[in-house]
Amino acid sequence: MITFTDVTKRYPGGTFAAHNVTFTVPAGSTTALVGPSGAGKTTLLRMVNRMVDPDSGTITVNGRNIHDSDPVRLRRSIGYVLQEGGLLPHRNVLDNVALVAKLGGASTKESKERALHHLGLVGIEGAMVRRYPHQLSGGQQQRVGVARALVGGADVLLMDEPFGAVDPMIRRDLQSETRRLQRDLGKTVLLVTHDIDEAFVLADQIIVLRQGGVVAQQGSPAELLGQ
Ligand code: ADP
Ligand code: ADP
């Protein structure tokens, strides 16, 4: 579970990036943050792994106040999926994923096995695991990025515009696969997207932000449409 309570953040000289933001991402469910560019979506997401700290308010992850957590340990306990996968260009696919398992303390052999297992979950198999990121399509890179976020065993995932760079033709497939994976694995997911359709496909709860404030918060996509 992730909770935000009265979270406020103002960058030096700027307007509010977050203004008294309060919401909960229940365990095992997905919440999407949507809103126009500059609304504060990325700032809220980055607060969860302490890449940005709030000026005031409290954030908890699985019951713990994150400000009592060491940022490095905190980041290892949270999977982070970036646009375009965020893969290391000079490592092959298998190494990109295995490296994260290794950072979490697994042996070389175990890291490799876990990497292969998680790559299999997202449909990256066979000779493809020896390729380098530039030898993959945007969609395939994004799959590897998801495997990498999962391999550490984190039950909390942050996804920043995860499919923004993916060919629209396959984005839908990737979204439904991600949705199924979220359900099967029971992850707690906070997702940033400016694609409202994506939020509808992926999220159990949608939070609409504008100028750092929550303007609408709905338990289900249907509620958001007033259905
Ligand atoms: P990305 O989201 O592609 O990783 P950045 O990390 O550079 O991009 O920035 C995240 C967001 O913060 C963007 O919306 C960007 O416009 C904004 N931003 C970053 N640095 C500044 C700054 N110094 N002043 C104003 N806005 C900034
Ligand atoms: P979004 O992800 O919804 O596009 P951001 O969280 O990136 O929004 O930005 C929210 C506001 O904070 C914007 O006005 C942006 O310019 C500002 N901002 C973001 N990052 C920085 C930064 N590092 N320094 C100054 N202002 C920033």
UniProtKB/TrEMBL annotation:
<keyword id="KW-0547">Nucleotide-binding</keyword>
<keyword id="KW-0813">Transport</keyword>
<dbReference type="GO" id="GO:0016887">
    <property type="term" value="F:ATP hydrolysis activity"/>
</dbReference>
<feature type="domain" description="ABC transporter">
    <location>
        <begin position="2"/>
        <end position="227"/>
    </location>
</feature>
<dbReference type="GO" id="GO:0015418">
    <property type="term" value="F:ABC-type quaternary ammonium compound transporting activity"/>
</dbReference>
<protein>
    <recommendedName>
        <fullName>ABC-type quaternary amine transporter</fullName>
        <ecNumber>7.6.2.9</ecNumber>
    </recommendedName>
</protein>
<dbReference type="GO" id="GO:0005524">
    <property type="term" value="F:ATP binding"/>
</dbReference>
<comment type="similarity">
    <text>Belongs to the ABC transporter superfamily.</text>
</comment>
<keyword id="KW-0067">ATP-binding</keyword>
